[in-house]
Amino acid sequence: MATTAGRKEHPISMRLPEADIAMIDRAAGLRGRSRTDFVRDAAVRAAEDVLMENGLIRMSPEGFAEFMAALSGPGTSVPEIVEVTKRPSPWESGYTAKR
Known about the structure:
Layout: H1 18-31, H2 35-53, H3 61-72, H4 79-86
């Protein structure tokens, strides 16, 4: 008979001002999520960002030299990006939103 490993969850308790709770609830509702799901996802996403910012990248001296050479070399344009940057802004093109 196979056994299933139990899911271990640990509660986190926070004291927040009523205005913060109201804002979180409103945003969670707009996403169709519970407060718990919304806060958990936001906290995990923020934690991942911090960890990625502080991640150590290791490479050989040869790999580092190649990396620096690529950064120091001339850039190449991406035609799709160039086209996007040449488009007029909505406020420059007379665009009006439909209501």
